[in-house]
Amino acid sequence: MKVNKPAQVKGHAKSQKWKDVRGKRCRPPISSSELNSSPVMARMIKEHQASVKKKPTVKRLKNKAKSVSDFKKNSSSGLKKSYSQANGSSVFTMDNESDDSQDWKEYSQSIQGNGVETSADVEDVRPGRLEGDALHYCAERDDRKNHAVLVMQKEQTLCFRGKCFLTCLYGRVEVMGFTIEEGQQSYPLFSPASHCPLTIRALESSDGTRDDKTEAASILQKYLSSASRKKLLKRITSNSSIILLEPMETPLTRFLSSFTELSELFSPPMSELMSAVLDTPLNGLGMIPLVSTVEGLKTSKSYREALSTVVSACRGDMDGCAVILVCGTKNVGKSTFIRTLINTLLNHTTSVDYLEGDLGQTEFTPTGCLSLSTVREPLLGPPFTHQRTPEHMIYYAQSSCESDLDRYLESLKSLWRRRSQSRETPVIINTMGWVKGFGFQLLVDMIRFFPVSHVVQLCHSGTTQCPALTPEFLRTAHGCQTHPPAQTALDEFTESHTPPRSYTHLIVQSEFQDVGRQGTAKHQRTNEHREQSLLAYLSQLQSPDPGPVRPLNSLTPYQVPHTAVALGVVHCEVVPSHMFYAANASLVGLCCLGEKITSRGGPVLLSQAPICPCVGFGVLRGIDMARGLYFLLTPVDPSILRKVNCLLLGAISLPSCVLTTQPGFEEGDMPYVTTDYSFDLTGAGKLRVFKGLTRPSQTGM
């Protein structure tokens, strides 16, 4: 089923596909209707706009970044006359003698001798990490407007924990491969303790002929007081970048912080507390800078070369679109590499298609989904910060596919068939970290099923943890559903014989700390990442207006008749008489079966797991047997809910904090929560069924 499918633009020549699109991001304030993102992100932007609508801003400009002449024209609107000085310098005379006018006077008088300041007027600047005292010299905060302005020099970096909005006022900066330039919209940055901290890096200015001091003074005038402007103007050089940092509070962050165990999610973990810089102009904005002993994203030489190779291939004249499959064992950095690759590609194209094949660590949806998404905005945070509704989605309902390999592969093929084959947008395919046995055979199948142009194989410690998936290896490899073609002695003399399709194979050695090992600190375990993504999805049930968080048990549910939808359990065998016990207080996928649901007056139960479109998720918070009703909480729009005729229950359970933190109940009387249960009893656990698995010896391995 197609959900919120964007309109495709026809008639564009191939040469226009990869032109620089950063100028297209210079636009008026974004509205939720313009943002192809989740309701969470749309509400976040909307709320942020409301909080700053009374103050001047240069975010999301309709036109591209202003030229030098435009800035000079604006800055000279209040001038009476300009008197020539030596070497073509000038001194300005203002209409009034305000503090701002005095600043301009002092600055103009300081420009002597070839129009530049003397070395004594400019602070010493060095590349590297901004930390400690350096932040006091290059950052100033306006307490009235509750924002800070930071001046960065070329190749200087700021690594931090926390969250904020970033607007580039002057120059260029880069975050996770995405370049943010002046005149573009502001972007939300998320750097929680659950993932690697974000790093902001200043880039070299693209225009070396600009009058940097004049333009910078005009920009700073809008955001800082007179004294603060004077201090920062001394830091401005031809390679300076100026960024505006503002606090960010959204329904997502409020909902997550309402749970005790997640209240410190955006603070440094225990291992970084001694490395946090707590006394800077940025701290009150929700940002905590980190010293250089804490590494941000560490990229190896092979990492950077692979990114460059893929991006160059996409920008070149390829026959068709680039299809990049990324694979590797667990905890090797596949998701981070993909986010960086998507962000880098978005510097050159308006969108990137993404096929999700990793059930356990999904990027845009709760765990257990296979999906096809079109990404148009940069990914500047971990998965739970950009949950959104994909164009196409299938609910597999488990975090691993080992119980039914055929259903996994058929679901992926079904998603691929829904993608228009005429699209020239690059495609990135994410895969699971299962690279042994049947997991490796699935990778072989996927490379054969899809028109892959590049295979990026991540590894660590100098080995690939599995055979290298080169085109030569694939000629003799066995998959779960595919096998190498039978070769005969006559093949080389037969004209009809076609050589196997080739692709580029790239090896990336990951070198970050603790590579190959699951995080053990708080918020860093994979099961916690899954819960964070699901909680982020449920945060869409919250009101976009500021205010207290409403617990799920206080929200009004939809009433759905038993006869209107079918109910199915995917992950295990449940006898029909126990189906409602299993489904109550559980997460269900809202799906659309191809055939009409017919009922004989009672509930409709499915006997097997279907492969069908999924439009979202809901919490089945109650079942009324007397009236034949399901009570369902979901953020899905009612117009889409009318198409839903199937509820699928899987192994993806609600986070325990949702059930154990229900206000208004005494301990022991909380709904859906009990301690009167023993897993030691025979049959107390669920029965797991493995479909279609055969011994490796029977598959020719």
From TrEMBL:
GO terms for cellular component: nucleolus. Residues 554-655 form the NOL9 C-terminal domain. Residues 1-105 are annotated as: Disordered. Pfam families: CLP1_P (PF16575), Cupin_NOL9 (PF24419), NOL9_C (PF25467). Gene3D superfamilies: P-loop containing nucleotide triphosphate hydrolases (3.40.50.300). InterPro entries: Clp1/Grc3 (IPR045116), CLP1_P (IPR032319), NOL9_C (IPR057570), NOL9_N (IPR057573), P-loop_NTPase (IPR027417). GO terms for biological process: cleavage in ITS2 between 5.8S rRNA and LSU-rRNA of tricistronic rRNA transcript (SSU-rRNA, 5.8S rRNA, LSU-rRNA); definitive hemopoiesis; digestive tract development; exocrine pancreas development; liver development; pancreas morphogenesis. Keywords: ATP-binding, Kinase, Nucleotide-binding, Nucleus, rRNA processing, Transferase. It is found in: Nucleus, Nucleolus. Signal peptide: none annotated. One of its GO terms (molecular function) is ATP binding. Residues 328-460 form the Clp1 P-loop domain. Residues 30-39, 74-95 have a biased composition (Polar residues). Residues 51-65 have a biased composition (Basic residues). Residues 138-270 form the NOL9 N-terminal domain. Belongs to the Clp1 family. NOL9/GRC3 subfamily. This is Polynucleotide 5'-hydroxyl-kinase NOL9. It comes from Lates calcarifer (Barramundi).
